[in-house]
Amino acid sequence: MFEKYFLPIxxxxxxxxxxxxxxxxxxxxxxxxxxxxxxxVYFTLRQGQLYxxxxxxxxxxxxxxxxxxxxxxxxxxxTLAGFITGYFYNESKILENTTTIKIVFIVLLASLVDSSFYxxxxxxxxxxxxxxxxxxxGLLPALYTSILSLTVxxxxxxxxxx
Length: 162
What we know:
Layout: H1 2-21, H2 23-26, H3 35-47, H4 49-67, H5 73-86, H6 94-99, H7 102-122, H8 130-148, H9 150-154
Helix pairs in contact: 1-3, 1-4, 3-4, 3-5, 3-7, 4-5, 5-7, 7-8
C-alpha cells in the first residue's frame, strides 16, 4: 500500500522542486526536460492505466499549485500522459517495460503529448500554429526528456540490456 499510494507522492515533491529550480539551468534555449513525466511513466508502467491517469492528475494539480502557472494546464496534460502511458501496461511485462530501453520510447511518446498539450493550454501566445507547438514545444522537450530517462534504465538494479 505504501509503494502504491504514498511513494509516488513522496518522490514527486523533491522532483518537482528540482524541476522548478535546477532544470531551468540545464535548459537549452527554453527547451527543458520534464522530470515529472519520467516519474509518472515509471509508476504507470508498474501499476496500470487507471492508476497512471489518477496519478497524472495528482502530479499535475500539485505542479500547478507549486509553479503558479495556469491552474489546470498541467493537470490536463499529465492526466493525458498517464492515460496514454497506461496503454503500454502489461502485468506480465512490468520488469521488461521499466528496465529496458522500451521505457525511453514510452517516455518520448508520453512527453510529446504532455509537452504539446501543456504548451497549447499554458502559452499566452494566441497566434501559434499547431505545427510549431508540436515540433518546437512538444518534440524537442520530449527528446530531451527521453534522453534523461535513460538514467532509469542505467540505474535499474534489474536491468536486462540496452
